Amino acid sequence: MTFADKYGPWALVAGASEGVGAAFAAELAARGLNVVLLARRQHALDEVADAVESRSNAQTRTLVVDLSEGSAAEKIAAATADLDIGLLVYCAGSDTEIVPFLDNELSSAEGMLQRNCLAPMQLTHHFGRSMVERGRGGIMLLSSGAAFVGAPSMAVYGATKAFDVIFMEGLWSELRDHGVDALGVVLGTTDTPALRRVRQSRGLAGPDEPVRGATSPQEVVTAALDDLGKTPTCMAGRQIRWGSRILSPIPRRLQVRLMAFMSRREMGDGHDT
Fold first, then answer.
1. 20 inside domain
2. CATH number of the domain bearing residue 32
3. InterPro entries, alphabetically (predicted)?
4. Considering 157, 163, 167, 172, which one is annotated as catalytic?
């Protein structure tokens, strides 16, 4: 079965306006998938769509949706009702504020919870059921090294990214026998336009200055697609792979397998109470 047969004919990339999301869109189109591009800025989506269509035979569709709004998943489901979505790639969810929890408005934290946890959970439930019915498909949810240990000024961000990792690892165990691949993609420092803007705003770098030593968006995409269907968690880049081994010498795939074994031994197959 080809990549397009397994994960096509359409992919939905949330957070596709630049950086890792745009790189995913380009690579998936090159592999034969049509791509729904989703973000908040129409002009940026149009640029990505034009680039994708000029370099491939893929069709594109753009959706302008704010994923921090409670109705986001419902809007996306309605806008893609006529499409066969075989791959969901959720790249949205970076934190550009990076301030202590109590110094920020609670609404900011609530929006992040919606964008990083509720929206991807809702979209996974919606598209995942169709994938299981067809017996094929994939779901990738991007996380961060901030998920491993709590850090100042990233309390909520790190907590939501921890949710993303555990959510995908659990689904990997649940869905793999149904032909659907779930993958949590953990990013370290990645040289994205968003990170460059944050560094510039804090006086750490000049305009559009590359982030030294950081992983490139294309490296993230390559690592994620290489691991899709093989493991529950991808450490996308040399830096994050090194860091994760220091924090936990036991590979996460083995941890997930052990947890699945213990869960089935104690609770049955997951359908019994």
1. yes
2. 3.40.50.720
3. NAD(P)-bd_dom_sf, SDR_fam, VLCFA-Steroid_DH
4. 157
